[in-house]
Amino acid sequence: MAVQVSDDGHVLTLDDGDGAARRFHAIWLRDNAWDDATRAPGNGQRLIALRDIPPDTRITSAAVDGERLTVGFAPEGKTVAYDIDWLRSHAYDRAQPQARGWTGDTISTWDSGLMGAVPVGAFGAVRQDPAALRDWLAQVRRFGFGKLTGGPVEPGALLQVARLFGFVRETNYGVYFEVRTEVNPTNLAYTGLGLQAHTDNPYRDPVPTMQILYCLENSAEGGENMVVDGFRAAQRLRQENPAWFDLLTQYCARYEYAGEAGVCLRSRRPMIELAPDGELVAVRFNNRSTAAITDVPFDRMADYYAAYRRLGEIIDDTAMEVTFKLAPGECFIVDNTRVLHARKGYSGSGKRWLQGCYPDKDGMLSTLAALEQRAEPWTIAA
Ligand code: FE2
Predict the structure, then answer these.
(1) How far is the CA of 95 from the centre of ligand 1 (A)?
(2) Which of 35, 133, 158, 198 could be joined to 126 by an S-S link, Cβ 3.0–4.6 Å?
C-alpha cells in the first residue's frame, strides 16, 4: 500500500498496487475521522459539525503502517489514524452509476423464471436461529419478497412474524387487517375474481414499506397469490422505450383514498421513482387508487398515458409473475416499494382468510445489517 499527497494537500491517494488507486479529499478525510474528539466512542455518533472543520483544511503528512494510515491536518495541527480497510470499503473514487434505473448489488430483479426458487424460510428456524433469520431476510432484501412456512394458525400470528425483525405501522386499517372472503358457488359473480397486481396504499406518504399477508384458512380452489417485480417491470419498460420510462419517472401521478368516513389520504409521487443519481427507488402502481393525474404537461399527457398503459401490460404479462398458494400457517412478506402483489381468481366452495399488516422496511434492513455484522460466529457454529 502506497500513499501520496497532492502538492496543495487537498487530495490523498491510496494505491493498493492492483491498479485501483483511490483518491480522497482532505475535507472528506477530516470529516470522517474516528478519533474520540470527532466521534463518540460509545455510539459512534459525530460530535462535531462541519462548521467546526476549517474550510481550508489540507493534509500535511501521511504515512502507512500495515493496515493503518496516519494523516496530519492543517490548520488544526491534528493527526488522525484510519483503518485502511474502512477507507477501501468507503472509497468514492470510482465509476459513477450506470443508466437511469440501476439497482444496487444487494438486489436481483426477476421474472417468472424465479417460480421454482421462491425464497422461503421456516418459522421455527428463523425464530430460533439468528443465521436462519439472517439468510431469510437477505433473500427478502434481494428479491423483494419471501415466504415463511410452519407458523401458528391463530389470529394475530402475523405480528409474531413482524416482531422477528421490526415494527408494524398502524394505519386507519388498524394494526392489522382482515382479508376474508367466503366463496359462494351459487353466485358466479364471485368466481374468477382476480385483482390486478398492485402496490398497496400508494396514497400514503410514505407508503407502507412492507406487507405481511398471513394465511389462516385457504380451502377455496385457486386464490393463489401472485407477485411481480416492479423493478424488473420498470427496467423492461426502459429497455423497450426509454422515453416512456423517463415520462413515468419525471412526472408525478396522484393517488387518493377516501373510502371511509374521516379519511382522505392523498399523495403526489411518480409511478417510477428514481434517486437523483438514477437509482431505482420505488414503484407505485395501483389501478384502484390512482386519482386524476394533473401534473403532466398537456403536450405530454397522451404519451404519459401510453407509457402508463405499457407499464400495466408488462405487469400483466404472465412471463413476469411468480405464483404460489399459501396454506394455513404460511405467510409471505413483500417489499411494497418494489414488488406488486395480487390475488388470482378463485372458484368453487371454501373460505379464504388472510390477515395483513405493514411492518417498516427500515427496521427489517436494520435487523438484517446487525445480523450480518455479527455473521461470522454463527457461520462457524452452523
Ligand atoms: Fe394489496
Answers:
(1) 39
(2) 133
Helices marked H in 152-297 — which ranges? Answer: 157-163, 230-240, 242-250
Distance 42 CA to ligand 1 centre (A): 42
**CA–CA distance, 184 with 189 (Å, rounded to integer):** 9
Q: Where are the domains of the chain?
A: 2-89, 112-373
Give dist(CA 345, CA 193) in Å, integer: 5
CA distance 287 to 379: 45
- What are the beta bridge partners of residue 70? 63, 81
Q: Which residues, in sequence order, are CB contacts of 152 under 8 Å at separation 6+?
A: 123, 160, 329
pTM of the predicted model, to two decimals? 0.92
> How many Å lie between the centroid of ligand 1 and the Cα of residue 179?
9
Q: Dihedral, CA atoms, 176, 182, 187, 188, nearest 10 degrees?
A: 70
| Region 2-89: CATH code | 3.30.2020.30
Q: How far is the CA of 336 from the centre of ligand 1 (A)?
A: 9
What average pLDDT does the segment 291-318 reach? 98
Homologous superfamily of domain range 112-373:
Clavaminate synthase-like (3.60.130.10)
